[in-house]
Specification:
The structure is a homodimer of 116-residue chains. By secondary structure, chain A is an alpha+beta fold. Chain A has one domain: Arc Repressor Mutant, subunit A (Orthogonal Bundle). In chain A, 59% of the residues lie in helices and 12% in strands. A 3-stranded antiparallel beta sheet of chain A has the order 1-3-2. The N and C termini of chain A lie far apart (42 Å). Chains A and B meet through α1, α2, β1, α3 and α5 of A and α1, α2, β1, α3 and α5 of B. Chain A binds a DNA duplex (20 and 20 nucleotides) through α3 and α4.
DNA sequence: CAGTATCCAAAGGGATACTG
DNA sequence: CAGTATCCCTTTGGATACTG
């Protein structure tokens, strides 16, 4: 098995990087919501990501911000609100989300058929 | 924020399902290699997934098999060899792998530029 | 060759309560 | 509202050694 070519190795590294960046239980869902509604507040995201606790949501958002995928803006309202938005760079992730969504839907149908 | 529509909820569930199925550190790399070479032995996969231990590889393969994404075939050679192949159904995952690979490559370039 | 067995460390994630 | 603090549990994955 000839695996001694750089392209394969590069590709493997690219996939690993992407997964490291976007992996975990929540990030894709957060990005999906932000792409769909464009701007959301902390509370909105918490309600939409059913089951997530504030601590976990906070951490996911910080990591996404660190990776330049979202921006965080504090609004001078009373009480203070914070809005999150996807960056221009985050558009690069849309194809991944779409593909994941498409596969997930097919898979759910397949499972549904199996047990009906 | 109007999130009370079933489509959004369904989509979120689909994404969560897909990630649950394919998430983790190795599965996408394994599937990438299997799509590329079509058939691989345990040892090949271990060498290509640099750093993976046999125990972990074994578990990933079992989970992929349970989810109907790969097949496992024992060959009556001496010593015994085992070959893994992607199923027809696994073709549904290719778009996800491609998108992930594409994003990962762009991201690696972006990081490389940043620190050069 | 293709795994399994055992042990262990770290990361991820959740429950609950609290704060500016 | 938008988090943080603390505590804790489970899952994931890795090291090492061993087997048919």
């Amino acid at each position: 098995m000839n695996m001694n070519n750089d392209i394969s190795k590069e590709n493997i590294l690219a996939i690993k990087d992407a997964i490291e960046l976007l992996g975990g239980k929540w990030k894709f869902c957060i990005l999906y919501n932000l792409q769909k509604y464009h701007t959301m507040r902390f509370k909105d995201l918490q309600e939409m990501s059913v089951g997530i606790t504030p601590k976990v949501l906070s951490k996911q958002l910080q990591e996404l911000e660190d990776n330049l995928l979202i921006t965080r803006t504090v609004n001078a309202t009373k009480p203070v609100t914070v809005s999150y938005e996807p960056t221009k760079y985050a558009e690069e992730v849309i194809p991944v989300i779409d593909a994941l969504l498409s596969f997930g839907s097919k898979h759910r149908k397949k499972i549904k058929e199996k047990y009906s």
